[in-house]
Specification:
By secondary structure, this protein is mainly alpha-helical. It has one domain. It is elongated. 0% of the residues are buried.
């Protein structure tokens, strides 16, 4: 779906607009942003390596979901 979106005529026309190009160029130059050829794959890779088990959740989080805390608390 992502590839369909990025390759769609509507998206191509949007990215070709002068004001869009100008803003994107300003962002790239001012923030040293590097274009990624495969952004979806890059994000999926980050997600696969993220240490979710290191996130500490509050008791309210577990209460809201109605699940047991990882340390066994209810």
């Amino acid at each position: 779906m992502f590839d369909d979106f990025t390759n769609s005529l509507e998206e191509q026309e949007y990215k070709a607009r002068l004001e869009v190009k100008s803003v994107l160029d300003t962002i790239r130059k001012g923030m040293d942003v590097v274009l990624i050829d495969t952004p979806f794959e890059y994000i999926k890779n980050l997600q696969s390596k993220f240490p979710y088990e290191q996130i500490s959740f509050t008791d309210e989080y577990y209460d809201t979901l109605g699940i047991e805390c990882s340390d066994g608390r209810v």
